[in-house]
Amino acid sequence: MPAEPRIMQQRGLYYDEIEVGVVYQHAPGRTVTEADNVFFTTLTMNTQSLHLDAHWSAQQEFGQPLVNSMFTLSTIVGASVAQLTQGTIVANLGFETVRFPKPLYHGDTLYTETEIIDKRLSSSRPGQGIIKFRHLGRNQHGDVVAECVRSTLLWQSEAHHRKASA
């Protein structure tokens, strides 16, 4: 009789597995379409003509519609989830900085990397720690189109396993 298969569940990293200074490159990249931009923009009730009106946008400084910067921010953070925080996060604590140094356009491909810039144990939540991430998004030419610093609360592995078995 064959042995039971070993099951490996995809997860992010625990607090104790994360090292300051490490840079994670996330895959795959995400090519952004006009449909993505229009859907996200209308879903979030952002009626900015720079995202929705191609004729008007063509007459503005960039000469074409821009991808909604909140879509770009959501995508660079989202690209990190499977590798870093899937199932190990307690909470997203906030953003310190958010920058969009260059625009993202329809048809551009967004590539994301995350650097671990700080970590410390929580003083009020035993078994958990605060990780500070620097998420960076680049287009297919390597231009930085988005950057943010984000703090999250993650489980320590032993504490999470104790909680799960309780």
What does this 3D model show about the protein?
It is built from 6 helices and 5 strands; from the N terminus they run E-H-H-H-H-H-E-E-E-E-H. A hairpin with a 6-residue loop joins strand 3 and strand 4. It has helices spanning 34-43, 49-52, 54-58, 69-78, 81-84, 157-165; strands at 23-31, 89-99, 109-121, 128-138, 144-155. A 5-stranded antiparallel β-sheet has the order 1-3-4-5-2. The chain has a single domain (15-165), classed as Thiol Ester Dehydrase, Chain A (Roll). The chain is of the alpha+beta class and 166 residues long.
Count of folded domains = 1
**Assembly state (oligomeric):** single chain
Mean pLDDT: 95
| Low-confidence runs | none
Q: What is the string of SSEs from the N terminus onward? A: EHHHHHEEEEH
Overall shape: elongated
Give the strand tally: 5
CATH topology: Thiol Ester Dehydrase, Chain A
CATH-scheme architecture: Roll
Beta-strand portion reads 25-35%
End-to-end Cα distance: 32 Å
Kindly provide the name of the CATH class: Alpha Beta
Radius of gyration: 19 Å
Class of secondary structure makeup? alpha+beta
Summarize the main sheet.
5 strands, antiparallel
The side-by-side strand order for the widest beta sheet comes to: 1-3-4-5-2
Number of helices: 6
Query: What is the H level of CATH, i.e. the homologous superfamily?
Result: Hotdog Thioesterase
Proportion of helical residues: 25-40%
